[in-house]
Amino acid sequence: MTRVAVLGARGRMGSTSVEAIEAADDLDLVAAVDKDDAIEALTESGAEAALVFTTPDVAMDQVIWCVERGIHVVIGTSGFDDEKIARLRELAADHEGIGILVVPNFSIGAVLMMRFAAVAAPFFESVEIIEMHHPDKVDAPSGTAVRTAEMIGAARREAGSAPLPDATTSDPDGARGAKVDGIPVHAVRARGFIASQEVLFGDPGEIFGIRHDSSTRESFMPGVVAALRGVTARPGVTVGLDTVLGLTD
């Protein structure tokens, strides 16, 4: 049994995760902490791993607090960019044996979508990402879209692909979207969505699309449970569920 604490336990993802952890035979929920609770409950309860679903303004400090006390961490909070991940690597180097797993998306279907998109990326001239979420989401583009763009960009560089064609010279309002690793990313925020993403590839005469939709937060729970099961065996910093699911070494 792995003794687990949840930070952000009364939020949308945190509360659903609490239920999934309680239902797992090999995980033991020992602390459910939210913004009005003392984080010291983690050490008092003997937590071995913490699941972080708090807001970006406090998540990094909470991760540091956990790692410094020998608690493995699974990070579900968005906004852990290259700079923050570099800080995590420095932190992990000073705390040997502690695992930090940064997960842009816990949906196994979304993880496969990102992997398939990276495989397809060098074969097409054009590629763009459209991500669609509920309007209560505070960050844009989503962590999933950023991670997808990074994987696509890396795959295209490794293959020696040409830059994406785009004749746009005037876009004062940013209609062409954000550029992440050279890949256009468009963020939609509309009531009715939970989390959706489509990756569009184009070549002369054809369009190829890969799309994933999550309609309930329960769709993320198999990934949450897998991450908590896997983090204690993976010291250092790991980004994404790929290695946990056996998709990469």
From TrEMBL:
Q: Which residues form the Dihydrodipicolinate reductase N-terminal domain?
A: 3-106
Provide the Dihydrodipicolinate reductase C-terminal domain boundaries.
109-245
In terms of InterPro entries, this protein maps to: DapB_C (IPR022663), DapB_N (IPR000846), DapB_N_CS (IPR022664), DHDPR_bac (IPR023940), NAD(P)-bd_dom_sf (IPR036291)
Q: Which PROSITE patterns match?
A: DAPB
**EC number, UniProt record:** 1.17.1.8
The compartments listed are:
Cytoplasm
Q: What class of enzyme is it?
A: oxidoreductase
What reaction does this catalyse? Answer: (S)-2,3,4,5-tetrahydrodipicolinate + NAD(+) + H2O = (2S,4S)-4-hydroxy-2,3,4,5-tetrahydrodipicolinate + NADH + H(+); (S)-2,3,4,5-tetrahydrodipicolinate + NADP(+) + H2O = (2S,4S)-4-hydroxy-2,3,4,5-tetrahydrodipicolinate + NADPH + H(+)
Spans annotated as Disordered: 157-178
Q: Which GO terms describe its cellular component?
A: cytosol
Xref: Pfam families: DapB_C, DapB_N
UniProt KW keywords: Amino-acid biosynthesis, Cytoplasm, Diaminopimelate biosynthesis, Lysine biosynthesis, NAD, NADP, Oxidoreductase
The entry's NADP(+)-binding residues are: K35
Q: What GO MF terms are annotated?
A: 4-hydroxy-tetrahydrodipicolinate reductase; NAD binding; NADP binding; oxidoreductase activity, acting on CH or CH2 groups, NAD or NADP as acceptor
Q: Where does (S)-2,3,4,5-tetrahydrodipicolinate bind?
A: H134, G143, T144
- Superkingdom field: Bacteria
**Pathway stated in the Swiss-Prot or TrEMBL entry:** Amino-acid biosynthesis; L-lysine biosynthesis via DAP pathway; (S)-tetrahydrodipicolinate from L-aspartate: step 4/4
Active site (UniProt): H133 (proton donor/acceptor), K137 (proton donor)
Binding-site residues for NAD(+), renumbered to this chain = G8, A9, R10, G11, R12, M13, D34, G76, T77, S78, V103, P104, N105, F106
Q: Name one GO biological process term.
A: lysine biosynthetic process via diaminopimelate
Identify the PANTHER family for this entry.
Answer: 4-HYDROXY-TETRAHYDRODIPICOLINATE REDUCTASE 1, CHLOROPLASTIC-RELATED (PTHR20836:SF0), DIHYDRODIPICOLINATE REDUCTASE (PTHR20836)
**What function is annotated for this protein?**
Catalyzes the conversion of 4-hydroxy-tetrahydrodipicolinate (HTPA) to tetrahydrodipicolinate.
Family the entry assigns: Belongs to the DapB family.
Complex and partners: Homotetramer.
Protein name (record):
4-hydroxy-tetrahydrodipicolinate reductase
What species is this protein from? Answer: Aeromicrobium piscarium
Q: Which gene encodes it?
A: dapB
